[in-house]
Design brief:
The structure holds 2 protein chains of 2 kinds.
Chain A (H helix, E strand, L loop, with lengths): L9 H25 L5 H16 L4 E7 L2 E4 L2 E2 L7 H13 L2 E7 L4 H13 L5 H11 L5 E5 L9 E2 L8 H29 L4 H16 L4 H5 L8 H20 L3 H12 L10 H4 L7 H8 L1 H10 L6 H12 L20 H15 L12 H9 L8 H11 L7 E4 L4 E6 L9 E6 L13 E2 L8 E5 L8 H6 L1
Antiparallel strand pairs in A: 1-2, 1-4, 2-3, 4-5, 7-8, 7-11, 8-9, 9-10
Helix pairs in contact in A: 1-2, 1-3, 1-4, 4-5, 6-7, 6-9, 7-9, 7-10, 9-10, 9-15, 9-17, 10-14, 13-14, 14-15, 15-16
Chain B lengths: L15 H26 L5 H21 L2 E5 L3 E4 L2 E5 L7 H7 L2 E6 L5 H15 L8 H8 L4 E5 L56 H28 L2 H14 L3 H8 L2 H10 L3 H14 L5 H4 L3 H15 L4 H14 L4 H10 L3 H15 L15 H14 L5 H7 L5 H11 L4 H12 L4 H11 L5 H12 L8 H13 L5 H9 L9 H14 L2 H11 L4 H18 L1
Antiparallel strand pairs in B: 1-2, 1-4, 2-3, 4-5
Classes of the chains: A alpha+beta, B mainly alpha.
C-alpha cells in the first residue's frame, strides 16, 4: 500500500497549504527589503516557505496571481477574509513589477530560494521582470524564475450559463477553448491525484461543467475534437476524450444534467488505477505479456480503491467506483475483472466502456501501421465486438460521433472528396464536411476553405477513403 | 481593483434616475443580506423565514420588471452596480462579498423572470458554503448544480492556463502517466522514429470490421426500444439505495481483490456502515459489517464508536429513523445490534435513551440485556444518569438479565427519588430468587407509594415466609392501617392469604378475640374473613365455621359472606 500524506489533499492545498504559502511569500518579500539573507528570522521564514513548497511540489510549483486571486499549481486558493488584504498587497506588489507569479522547480533549496526572492524584492517598476530574470541567470539561479504578465495567457471571464451560439465558428472556438481547458485541467487534476492518492474531485467537477453545458446546448463540435490525438499529452487527452464521448452519449440517451456531470467526472477518472502501474508497462509499445497483463487487469480495482479514499459518501463516489471497476467488463461476460455473481455492468460503466474502447482504438500502437480511423473503430465495435456493448450505448455512440466520425475521408456520389468535421445530428449519414477536392479535381484554397454544414441532401457517401490513399495529414486538416 | 469598481464612485452620469436605481439595488442587496441572516437563525419552515424569502423575491421581481437584468459586480469587500458600491461588508461574520469572491465569483446577473425557487436555491447554496463544518463544493459548482437559468455567473476559472509559457528547449517530455511521487518527465514513453510516443493497450479486441452503414439501419430501428430499456435500468439503479449499491460494488470488488486490496477496502467499510446506520438502513449496515469482518477479521466495533461527537450524531440519526419505522425494521435493527455485539452496548444505551417509541425501546432493552448478560456491571454508569428514564431503562435491563447477581445493583437504586424507577426496581427483583429479593423488598415497604406498595406485596406473596408474615401482621395491627387506601389494605390481606396456613392462627385470633372486630369495622372483618376463605384449606374452613357460630353478629356476618364467596368460587 502506498504511503500518501492523507492530509495533503486538494482541499488542503486550496484552503490550508496554498494560503499559508502565499502568506509566507508575502511576508518574506516584505522582510527582504529590510533584512539580509543572513538574518536568522529570514532564514527561519525561508525554511518554513521551503517546507510548504516541498509539500505541494509536483515537479514544479507555480504561484500565479490573477487580480487578487492566487493559484498554486493551478488550484485557486481560498483566502480567509482576514487574509484578503494581504493577498491584495502581494498581488499589487507583483503587478507593480509586471509579474504574474513565480515558478519554482523541484530541487530548489533555501539558499537559491532566498537569493531569488531577494532579487524580486530588490527590483521594482515596469522593467523589474526583465531585470529579475537577467539577475537570476547571472547569479546561477536555475530552479526559480519569474512569470511575466506577458507570458500568462490572458483569460476572459467565463460564463457558467450558456449564451446562444452566434455561428459555428464561434461554437468551434468555444469548443476548442473548453477542450484545451479540460486537457490542462485533467493534467493538473491527475498530477494532484498522483501526489495525494485521492481523486481531485472538486477540480474535476469544475472541468466537466463546461463540457456538460456544451452538450446541453447541442454543440457537437467538441465531440469532433476527440479525433485529434495529442501524442505528448495522450493520457490526459484520452481521459478528456472518454469524458466528452461519455457525456455526449448519455445526452443522446436523455440523461438529465446532473447525471451528465456525474458521468463526466467518473469518465474522466476511469483510469485512475493506472497511476499505480509502472510506466514501463503502461508505455510498452508492443503487446503485453501475461505478467504485464496481470498488472493491467488490476487497475480497475485499484481505481476503485483510490475513489474509496475520498471523504463522505455522495452519489458521485458510487458512480466513480462503478465506472472504475467495471469499465472493462463487457455485456457478454468477457473483460475484466470477472464478476463472481455474473452481474451486468452498471449503465454508466457501459457508456464509459464503449467510449474508452472507441478512443483507445484510434490511438497509435506499434503493432499497427497506423491508428484506426474513427470509422474503422466504429466498424469494429459495431461489428465483431457488438455483443460486448449495450445496443443502446452503441446507438448513442452513433448519435454522438455520426456514421462518419470527424476525420473520415469520404467520396461522395458526385465525386467530391471531403473530410468529415463532425456529426450532423439531423442526419447521421451526412456530416459537416470540408471539401478537399471538387469533382472537377480542383482543390479549394486553405485561405478560403469550402465547407458543407452539413453535406447537401443530394450527396451521398459512396466510399470511405483509407488514410493511406490520401496525401495530406488528416489531423492537421481537422485542427485547422 | 478595476477602476470602475472603486468604492463610492458613481457612474459618469449624475442623472438622478441612475442614482435612484442604484439606491433601489442597494436596498434590495441589503434586504438579501438580512434574509440570509434570518435563514441562518431559523428553521426553513419558520413563518418569518418564509416571509423574508417571499418578500425578497417579490422585490427582486419588481426591480427586474422596472429595470431589466440586475448585474452585481463583486470585489472582496463590496458589491457594485453600475460602478457604484451598493453593499460593503461590515463584519467578518456577515461578509457576503468575500464569500462570493473567495469562491471565484466576480459578477452575478439576475435576469428577468427570476423564479422564486431559483432564489431559494441561490440562498440555500450561500447558506451551505457558510455553514460551519461543511465540506461543500465551491459556490460556482453548487450554483451550477442547481441549474438556475435566470442567473448568470461570471467566475474566474478553477484552473488557470498558467503553463502557457513560450517554447522551452529544456522542457522534458511529459510522462505518459504520472507515477505517484515522481516528477513529471520521468519515464517518458519510447517513441517511434517519427517521434510519436507509443503505448500499450488495455483492451483485447477482435479486429473484424463490418459495414457500419448496415449496423446503423439496425440501430435506428431498435433505438426507441433499446433506449427505453436502458433508461429504465438507469432509473432502477438511481432509485436503489446508495449505501446498498456501494456495498454491492464493494462486494464485487472484493471478489477479485488481493490480500492488500482487502485490507485497504476494509478501511473504507466502517464509513459505509456508519452511513447506513445514519440513514436507518439496518440491512445494509449488517451486510457491510459482514463484509468488513470477512475483509478484516481483527476489526472490532470498539473503534467504530470511539469518536464521541460522531457517535452523538449517529445516535440522533439512528433514533430519528428507528422511531418512524415499523416492526420489521425494528427487528432488523435489533439483529444489527446483535451483530455489533457487546462493544456497541454504550451506543445502544444512547439510542435507548433517546428513542420515543416504546415498541422500539422495549425489545431494544432486552437485546441490550442479552448483550450485557455476562457483564451486568456495564449498566452501572447509566444508573447514575440524571435522567430518570435512563436509569429506569438500566434497571429494566438488569431485570431482563435477572439472577441473583443483579440484586446488589438493584438494592442501590431502591432509594431513587423517582417512583417510576423504584417501581421498575421492584419488577426487576422478581427475576431474582425470593430469598435474595425478599430483604430488599421488605426494606422498601415502609413509605412506598401505593403502586409500589402493591407491587412489593405481590412479589412477597410468591413464596410464604415467616418474616413476611410477621411484617404483614404488623402492618395489619398498626394503628393507622385503616388510613391506608382500600386498595392497599386489600393488598395486605391478599398477601396474608398467600402466606397460607402459617398465617391462619393469627388470623383466627384476630377473628375471635376482638381487636379490630371489637372496634366494629365491618370492612376489616369482612376482609379478614375473605382472607381466611382464600386460604381455602380445611383448617381455614373450620375457622370460618366457628365464626358462623360466633355470638358476635359482625363476625357471623363476615364469615357468612366469606363462606358464600368461597362457595361461589368453588362452583
Amino acid at each position: 500500500m502506498s504511503d500518501w500524506p492523507l492530509e495533503d489533499d486538494e482541499r488542503s492545498l486550496e484552503t490550508v497549504l496554498g494560503p499559508q504559502l502565499v502568506v509566507r511569500l508575502h511576508g518574506l518579500l516584505r522582510a527582504m527589503r529590510i533584512y539580509e539573507l543572513t538574518n536568522q528570522a529570514i532564514r527561519d521564514q525561508l525554511a518554513d516557505l521551503l517546507s510548504l513548497i516541498q509539500r505541494v511540489m509536483e515537479g514544479e510549483v507555480l504561484v500565479v496571481a490573477m487580480g487578487s486571486c492566487f493559484y498554486v499549481n493551478g488550484v485557486r486558493i481560498r483566502a480567509h477574509p482576514s487574509q484578503m488584504a494581504l493577498f491584495e498587497n502581494l498581488s499589487a506588489e507583483l503587478d507593480q513589477r509586471r509579474l504574474s507569479g513565480v515558478r519554482l522547480l523541484d530541487g530548489i533549496g533555501a539558499e537559491e530560494l532566498g537569493a531569488f526572492l531577494k532579487l524580486v524584492a530588490k527590483h521594482e517598476g515596469a522593467k523589474a521582470a526583465e531585470k529579475i530574470a537577467e539577475a537570476a541567470l547571472a547569479a546561477g539561479i536555475q530552479n526559480a524564475c519569474p512569470i511575466t504578465v506577458e507570458e500568462l495567457q490572458s483569460l476572459g471571464l467565463q460564463n457558467a450559463v450558456a449564451q446562444e451560439p452566434l455561428d459555428r465558428a464561434d461554437e468551434r472556438g468555444r469548443a476548442r477553448q473548453t477542450f484545451q481547458n479540460a486537457v490542462h485541467g485533467a493534467r493538473r487534476a491527475l498530477l494532484a491525484t498522483a501526489r495525494t492518492g485521492k481523486p481531485a474531485l472538486r477540480r474535476v467537477k469544475r472541468l466537466i461543467q463546461p463540457v456538460v453545458d456544451t452538450m446541453m446546448r447541442n454543440e457537437y463540435s467538441i465531440v469532433g475534437l476527440t479525433a485529434l490525438k495529442d501524442h505528448d499529452e495522450y493520457t490526459y487527452v484520452h481521459c478528456v476524450n472518454v469524458s466528452i464521448l461519455s457525456v455526449a452519449m448519455a445526452h443522446a440517451l436523455g440523461f438529465p444534467r446532473m447525471a451528465l456531470a456525474n458521468l463526466g467526472v467518473a469518465a474522466l477518472l476511469h483510469d485512475l488505477g493506472k497511476l499505480e502501474i509502472p510506466a514501463d508497462v503502461l508505455c510498452k509499445p508492443s503487446r503485453l505479456d501475461e505478467r504485464e497483463w496481470e498488472l493491467i487487469r488490476r487497475h480497475p480495482l485499484r481505481g476503485l480503491i483510490m475513489v474509496s479514499r475520498m471523504p463522505g459518501l455522495p452519489s458521485t463516489t458510487l458512480d466513480m467506483m462503478r465506472v472504475c471497476l467495471q469499465h472493462h467488463r463487457m455485456m457478454d461476460g468477457s473483460g475484466y475483472p470477472k464478476s463472481a455473481r455474473d452481474e451486468r455492468p452498471s449503465v454508466l460503466s457501459r457508456i464509459v466502456a464503449l467510449a474508452d474502447c472507441f478512443d483507445a482504438m484510434t490511438a497509435h500502437r506499434e503493432y499497427r501501421s497506423r491508428p484506426y480511423t474513427g470509422y474503422e473503430a466504429l466498424q469494429i465495435v459495431l461489428g465483431s465486438e457488438h455483443e460486448r456493448f449495450d445496443p443502446a450505448v452503441r446507438w448513442a455512440l452513433m448519435k454522438s460521433v455520426g456514421l462518419y466520425p470527424a476525420g473520415s475521408l469520404l467520396q461522395t456520389s458526385s465525386g467530391y472528396l471531403v473530410i468529415s468535421l463532425g456529426i450532423n445530428p439531423d442526419d447521421l449519414r451526412r456530416p459537416h464536411c470540408r471539401v478537399l477536392a471538387r469533382r472537377d479535381g480542383t482543390i479549394p484554397p486553405d485561405s478560403h476553405p469550402e465547407l458543407w454544414e452539413p453535406m447537401p441532401a443530394d450527396e451521398n457517401v459512396v466510399r470511405v477513403v483509407p488514410p493511406d490513399e490520401f496525401d495530406g495529414e488528416v489531423e492537421q486538416l481537422l485542427a485547422a | 481593483m478595476p477602476d470602475h469598481l472603486s468604492p463610492g464612485r458613481t457612474s459618469d452620469s449624475t442623472d438622478s434616475a441612475t442614482t435612484a436605481a442604484v439606491r433601489e439595488v442597494s436596498g434590495w442587496v441589503n434586504q438579501l443580506v438580512r434574509t440570509l441572516k434570518t435563514c441562518r437563525l431559523y428553521d426553513r419552515n419558520n413563518p418569518t423565514v418564509v416571509r423574508f424569502r417571499e418578500d425578497l423575491h417579490r422585490d427582486l421581481a419588481r426591480l427586474l420588471e422596472r429595470s431589466g437584468a440586475l448585474k452585481l459586480d463583486i470585489t472582496s469587500r463590496a458589491l457594485h452596480h453600475e460602478g457604484a458600491a451598493v453593499y460593503t461588508s461590515r463584519t467578518r461574520d456577515e461578509n457576503l462579498p468575500a464569500t462570493l469572491y473567495r469562491d471565484g465569483i466576480r459578477a452575478l446577473t439576475f435576469q428577468t423572470g427570476f423564479e422564486a425557487q431559483e432564489l431559494d436555491a441561490f440562498l440555500d447554496q450561500i447558506i451551505r458554503v457558510t455553514a460551519p463544518g461543511m465540506d461543500a463544493d465551491d459556490l460556482v459548482t453548487l450554483l451550477w448544480e442547481q441549474n438556475l437559468p435566470s442567473l448568470v455567473i461570471d467566475s474566474v476559472p478553477f484552473e488557470g492556463e498558467i503553463d502557457g509559457a513560450g517554447e522551452d528547449e529544456d522542457a522534458q517530455t511529459p510522462a505518459p502517466w504520472p507515477e505517484q511521487g515522481a516528477a513529471p518527465g520521468a519515464g517518458s514513453a519510447p517513441a517511434t522514429s517519427s517521434g510519436v510516443p507509443l503505448r500499450s493497450d488495455d483492451w483485447q479486441i477482435a479486429e473484424s470490421p463490418i459495414k457500419a452503414e448496415g449496423m446503423l439501419d439496425w440501430l435506428e430501428a431498435a433505438a426507441g426500444e433499446e433506449t427505453q430499456r436502458f433508461m429504465a435500468e438507469y432509473q432502477s439503479e438511481v432509485h436503489h439505495s446508495l449505501v446498498a449499491a456501494v456495498i454491492d460494488v464493494t462486494t464485487d470488488a472484493l471478489e477479485s481483490a488481493l490480500t492488500e486490496d482487502r485490507a485497504e477496502l476494509a478501511t473504507f467499510l466502517p464509513r459505509v456502515i456508519r452511513e447506513a446506520i445514519s440513514l436507518g438502513e439496518w440491512t445494509s449496515a449488517r451486510r457491510g459489517l459482514a463484509l468488513l469482518r470477512t475483509s478484516d477479521p481483527q476489526w472490532t466495533p470498539a473503534t467504530f464508536f470511539s469518536d464521541s461527537s460522531g457517535t452523538d450524531l449517529l445516535t440522533r440519526k439512528s433514533v430519528a429513523s428507528l422511531d418512524h419505522q415499523g416492526d420489521a425494521e425494528i427487528q432488523e435493527f435489533l439483529a444489527l445490534a446483535e451483530d455489533l455485539g457487546a462493544d456497541s452496548v454504550d451506543w445502544l444505551m444512547h439510542v435507548l435513551s433517546e428513542s420515543q417509541q416504546k415498541r422500539a425501546r422495549r425489545p431494544l432493552a432486552r437485546t441490550i440485556g442479552t448483550l450485557m448478560k455476562s457483564q451486568p456491571e456495564r449498566v452501572l454508569p447509566w444508573m447514575s444518569d440524571t435522567r430518570w428514564y435512563v436509569v429506569r431503562n438500566a434497571v429494566h435491563i438488569l431485570g431482563w438479565i435477572g439472577g441473583d447477581g443483579v440484586a446488589g445493583y438493584l438494592r442501590a437504586i431502591t432509594s431513587h427519588p423517582e417512583m417510576r424507577v423504584r417501581r421498575e426496581a421492584v419488577a426487576a427483583l422478581s427475576q431474582c430468587s425470593p430469598a435474595v429479593a425478599r430483604p430488599i423488598l421488605l426494606s422498601m415497604l415502609e413509605g412506598s407509594e401505593p403502586r409500589v406498595f402493591m407491587l412489593i406485596l405481590q412479589q412477597l406473596s410468591v413464596v410464604p415466609d415467616g418474616e413476611v408474615r410477621e411484617r404483614l401482621m404488623a402492618l395489619l395491627r398498626h394503628a393507622q392501617f385503616h388510613q391506608r387506601s382500600e386498595e392497599e389494605q386489600r393488598g395486605v390481606y391478599m398477601a396474608l392469604a398467600a402466606q397460607g396456613e402459617t398465617a391462619l392462627r393469627e388470623l383466627d385470633e384476630e377473628l375471635n378475640k376482638g381487636g379490630l372486630f371489637a372496634q366494629g369495622l365491618d370492612f376489616h372483618r369482612q376482609s379478614l374473613a375473605l382472607c381466611i376463605a382464600r386460604i381455602g384449606t380445611p383448617a381455614a374452613r373450620a375457622v370460618l365455621q366457628r365464626g358462623l357460630r360466633s355470638n358476635q353478629a359482625g363476625v357471623r356476618k363476615a364469615c357468612e359472606m366469606a363462606a358464600k364467596s368461597s362457595e361461589a368460587t368453588d362452583v
